[in-house]
Amino acid sequence: MAPTVLTEVQGSVAHASAQAAQRRAQREAALGAVPEWDLSHLYSSMDAPAFRDDMERVGKLARDFAGRYKGRLTALAESPDASRQLHEAVAGYEALDDIMGKLMSYAGLVYSGDTTDPKRAKFYGDAQERITAVSTDLLFFVLELNRVPDAVLDEAAATVPLNHYKPWLDDVRKEKPHQLDDKLEQLFHEKSVTGRSAWNRLFDETIASLRFKVGDQELTLEPTLNKLQDADGKVRKAGAEALANVFSQHMRTFALITNTLAKDKDIQDRWRGFTDVAQSRHLANRVEPEVVEALVSAVRAAYPRLSHRYYRLKASWFGKTELNFWDRNAPLPKVEQRTIPWEEARDTVLGAYGTFSPEMARIAKRFFDERWIDAPVRPGKAPGAFAHPTVPSSHPYVLVNYQGKPRDVMTLAHELGHGVHQVLAAPNGALMAPTPLTLAETASVFGEMLTFRRLLDATTSPLQRKAMLASKVEDMINTVVRQIAFYSFERKLHEERKNGELTAEAISDLWMSVQAESLGPAIRLGPGYETYWTYIPHFIHSPFYVYAYAFGDCLVNSLYGVYERSADGFQERYFALLSAGGTKHHSELLAPFGLDARDPAFWQIGLGLIERMIAELEDMG
Q1: In the chain, what's the furthest Cα-to-Cα distance?
Q2: Which residues have a Cβ under 8 Å from the Cβ of 201 and sit 6 or more positions away?
Q3: Residues 6+ positions from 486 with CB-CB distance below 8 Å
Q4: Rounded to two decimals, what is the model's pTM?
Q5: CA–CA dist 464, 461 (Å, integer)
Q6: Which segments in the chain show pLDDT lower than 50?
């Protein structure tokens, strides 16, 4: 290449890079100061003496605990002082669970901050191995508890002080039919480090390392997905094509991960006597399979009234009969798009929470004031968003990838709802604070609804109101319709995997079949979309988790209807629901609101709200 031409090319590249840097600087300036979390509330650093000391201490305590109780639980349960002695044992087990949870919470949060950093990856991997080894010494405890005769344990748990742990003991009992002998349980437990956990880690590190070329930018996953909400259709298309291009290059890896984990689950399910691919998830969620089936059937029957109807309407707004898949979440035409600064997002969410309950806002405010939130988009950072409860002796942390879009504000409201829920449930202790996934989405979706209603009530422009309603309907469709489609996809995939390994093309065919059914004829699922199953982390980390989102959204729609009809006393009942953690069944927690998820008509309440919002949009033209 001639020197002059080379100079021109170099100048062009430098100019493009300068423009990209300028755009990044403008976006960052528009967002304002975006906080990073302070993990020193757990440990000061990866090489902190306190972390090392706690790891060594919990190992010794676990060995001592096993030496004291292993092989003795039935005798303790049959002793005259059974309630006190078993309470002491369970309390000791819970204390160990809290220490181990703190150690792994810190390691996991550090790792999620940059999953591509070899030092962090090693730290996380080493911590996982050591905690697995420690917890192996404690495996006997739950197994032996389940060998105590039912009548004997029930009698002990009916009196003080063991009755405090009765909800946990009842949950442990539900696992009994699927419990294996001690050696097999130990083998499954120890092999998890080189099995499921290792494949999960491979997925996370692969996703975090991907780079997508969009115009003159090379982006990680989150900013690229963000392009699908850009006001410019060309940008949306470029983002979609970049995603499909990179996903297709890694299809073999994602197919291998998916096949391996589906087979791993099938093996465990067969050994444990689960007869349905989702049965273990239903058991973990403490929800009856028929309740889930009623939800799934109701949502699938509503596809034509919800997603098909809405996307047909949205296509008409763009002057089309069909939308390309990259336009599914596009902002409405002729609606001003702006970057929402972080401080405005914070004030909006806290204001919405405070209108409902000053106490709710006070708890949420701590996340901002005490740096419990990590919000910037960074290379290597875990994509998406989550609220990690850590352990009751500490406090939760929230991770978001904030980019100033209206949906980012809703995501912040969502994750803070989780955080408030986790704070309120923490006094139940490490064993009973965790909430089954079916109710775990209640506070998060309710927080979104509060925020949406506050923004909508403050909007006077008809066009802005229409845009907000449309955005909310899309969020609800993504939460209800899309997640049930995800659940249907998982069911098909895990059933098919029993017949042999699936090619990437076969997995893509399953994906396209459920997407076409759920989204309807107004969305054109063109070339490239068949690869989009690859990046969904729930399929890898938590099989069949996804229906919990639809459960939570429909539940919150019903709850919010109760709130609007009768606000008096609602906040107290709502806080009682959140504060219960994992101590009560969903039927018991919903009864004070006059709701029953076992009634098939229950789901129509939540779906009906979405229908009414779509009808309102149709009336707007």
Answers
A1: 95
A2: 121, 124, 125
A3: 514, 536, 538, 539, 546
A4: 0.88
A5: 5
A6: 1, 4-10, 12-16
